Amino acid sequence: MRFIIVTGMSGAGKSTALKCLEDYGFYCVDNMPPNLLPEIVKLFDSSGSNLQDAAFGIDIRMGVMFDSLFDVISSLRSLGHTVSVIFLDCADDVLEKRYKETRRSHPLAKNERICVGIDKERSLLKSVREKADYILDTSYFLTRQLREKISEIFLEHKEYKNLIINIITFGFKHGIPEDSDLCFDVRFMPNPHYTHLRPFSGLDERVRDFVLNSEGCAEFLERVTKLLDFLIPRYVTEGKNKLVLSVGCTGGKHRSVCLGVEIYEHLQKNGQSVLINHRDIEKDSKY
Question: Which of 262, 266, 7 is nearest to 126 (CA)?
Fold first, then answer.
């Protein structure tokens, strides 16, 4: 049988991931004590079930039983079963925001601040994260994108690199994204804002033609994509799981959007796991 263990930070999307797997035909159980997994497997075998795929949600609420997780996994693998561990991670500030929006308390926070619970959990799960087969950072994921990644890994069996690249296009007048790892300033290019293209965005073909045909654009893209092709394999080797790549112009509506899309398409063609978010494209209707 094939078993998938879904674990990770509370609030990172474990329940959503299990629902996705259930929709794909997996038998799913949430909040499963690790020590019960062998008994569940025996039950499947003895009942003559034709069940081939199962997924179990396991989190820090299991307390000390959580420590036995990888011993149980080793036991199952020794019996010939395929076991994969997917760890769902998320930036601390995003987790805190999610808890505040849902008005839920963190399982380890008790009467303390949410950030205290997050810190405790991250420390306790450090070794689990290091041993996981797949790490998905859901900080920028929509539910649809999480479903797509799970499908790619477990249904389409595409090669998956734990590094997820998040491209953010932005306007400098709205502030640089605080979590940027790499930031490219494209304000040196002619600005469509001062032409008849002002009402349109960088997603419009006319704006794209204007920007991409401007002097220096082709050379800029060539240099940036070569740099990324050099850096990304090295980030993967070093175990980096998330890369935030920001592309900025003045308002975040024209040039940054065009070039962000070009970089996104290049990375996609190279088989990278990449997302794009046009942060400021709608912020200033006058821009």
Answer: 7
- CATH number, residue 115: 3.40.50.300
Please check whether residue 191 lies inside any domain of the structure. yes
Asked if residue 285 belongs to a domain, the reply is no
In a domain, 106, yes or no: yes
What's the rounded Cα separation, in Å, for the pair 185 and 176? 10
Q: How many domains does the chain have?
A: 2
What pLDDT, on the 0 to 100 scale, is given for residue 285?
53
Q: What is the pLDDT of residue 286?
A: 47
Amino acid at 137: D
pLDDT of res. 159: 67
At CA 93, angle to CA 144 and CA 254, rounded to 5? 60
Residue 144 is encoded by which pair of tokens?
A: 């649809």
d(CA 41, CA 226): 49
Tokens of 89: 């991670």
What is the pLDDT, as a whole number, of residue 287? 40
Q: Is 213 found in the same domain as 148?
A: no
Structural domain of 31: 2-154
Does 77 share its domain with 59? yes
Q: Tally the residues of the chain.
A: 287
Q: What is the mean pLDDT of each run of 10 residues along the chain (287 residues)?
A: 92 93 91 85 74 87 70 89 93 90 82 89 90 90 88 78 88 93 96 93 95 95 97 88 93 96 95 91 67
- pTM of the predicted protein model: 0.73
DSSP-derived pairing of the beta strands 82-89 and 2-8: parallel
Q: Which amino acid is at 258?
A: C
Write the DSSP symbol of residue 191: P
- Residue 78: in which H helix or E strand, if any? helix 69-78
Which is nearest to 232 in space by CA: 164, 183, 168? 164
In a domain, 287, yes or no: no
Residues 168 and 80 in one domain: no
